[in-house]
Write a structure and sequence with these properties.
The chain is built from five helices and 23 strands. It is of the alpha+beta class and 364 residues long. It has one domain: RutC-like (60s Ribosomal Protein L30, Chain: A, 2-Layer Sandwich), CATH 3.30.1330. The radius of gyration is 19 Å and the shape is globular. The model is unreliable at 1-16 and 353-364 (pLDDT under 50).
């Protein structure tokens, strides 16, 4: 069934929206060469990552374990149109006329008290911003940060706070907004000794950034969450080409406080309520189209692997059993949060009726 679905993509009219596929290693050999022509880039998830052997495709190797049947999972971003490949410093990228996918991996220097993380974060963001300036894709719309030991105490605080400070300072140094126009983002923890891995999507034109009315904007968090607030928006909306919504990592936070401590079922439901608030806002901005939870693809980060069945039950109840969902074991930025969910999807006409979508090998 999965192969039929992939082949049908090739027979559709040329897409004008960004799309994502989640595939296992075993599914890749069956894909024809022309399937890869509109691939922008890939994130590989797994502890043991064999090389992808696609020299033209920028690839971010993320040392997080997929949950379910797959040891390795590939998140492949695709768009239509002619593409070109390039490298700027440590950043590898591939781009269409309007969209760019880029990635960078930096080993953390062996410095004490979190200085190494600050240094690697500052270097990575300086390289990313230099890439955007030199290529002309100035609008950073979505970024994924995978941070080793994200919750470990360091320098009198914790490593996530140090990352936030370095990210904030990098935005300021580059003349980039740290508040209302900051990109959508995620920040998850990877195992000790891993490098800092970042991949991102950028655009040549302006993109709308969305906030959640149920939550305090992350960049306005009070000082109890660190000396520098996280520099990201809750979602980004690319209105052209029919509309594409990219939702940041979203958890069980109302206002600025974590809610439903130690109740993973309630936390999953609350996270989806927050995503639903963003789809409602994005739909209001699209005159004849809408977004809905059942239309999106999801990546779900799970702190405690035994919680997976409860999380899956809520996901299937709320978004439908046919939704595309990838599950990962990861550390989350706050110790009291058990699950974090990110999502993306294209808008559909108001008369849209949900159609079944085959699950990737991701435990769903």
């Amino acid at each position: 069934m999965r192969r039929r679905q992939l082949v049908s993509v090739l027979n559709e009219p040329s897409r004008t929206t960004l799309a994502v596929e989640y595939l296992s290693r075993s599914q890749l050999p069956s894909l024809p060469d022309r399937w890869w022509q509109d691939a922008l880039g890939v994130a590989q998830f797994g502890q043991k990552l064999p090389p992808l052997e696609l020299a033209h495709l920028p690839s971010a190797a993320v040392p997080l374990c997929p949950l379910g049947e797959c040891e390795t999972l590939y998140e492949i971003w695709r768009a239509d149109g002619p593409m070109h490949v390039g490298r700027c410093g440590l950043v590898s990228y591939r781009a269409t006329a309007q969209l760019l996918f880029g990635c960078i991996t930096i080993a953390e220097p062996g410095e004490e008290e979190g200085k190494g993380l600050r240094a690697s974060t500052s270097t990575a963001y300086a390289q990313i911003f230099a890439t955007l300036e030199s290529t002309g894709y100035r609008q950073l719309m979505r970024i994924w940060n995978y941070i080793p030991d994200i919750g470990k105490p360091a320098a009198g605080s914790e490593r996530y706070w140090l990352f936030n400070s370095a990210r904030h300072d990098s935005f300021v140094a580059a003349g980039r907004p740290v508040m209302a126009l900051a990109p959508a983002a995620s920040a998850l923890g990877t195992p000790f000794g891993s490098p800092l891995v970042i991949y991102f999507l950028a655009h040549k034109s302006a993109v709308q950034m969305l906030e959640n009315p149920r939550q305090v904007s992350a960049y306005r968090y009070p000082a109890q969450y660190g000396p520098s607030s996280p520099s990201f928006s809750r979602a980004s909306l690319l209105a052209e080409g029919g509309g594409t919504l990219l939702v940041s990592g979203t958890s069980s936070i109302v206002g600025h406080k974590s809610v439903h401590s130690n109740d993973v079922t309630a936390q999953t439901r609350e996270s989806l309520l927050n995503i639903g608030a963003l789809t409602d806002d994005a739909s209001r901005r699209m005159s004849s189209q809408r977004f809905a939870l059942s239309m999106l693809s999801y990546k779900v980060y799970v702190r405690r692997e035994p919680d997976l069945p409860k999380i899956m039950a809520v996901m299937h109840e709320s978004v439908g059993s046919a939704a595309r969902i990838a599950y990962m074991r990861a550390d989350i930025c706050r110790r009291d949060l058990l699950v974090e969910i990110e999502a993306m999807g294209a808008a559909e006409p108001l008369a849209y009726e949900s159609q079944p979508a085959q699950l990737a090998c991701a435990g769903g």
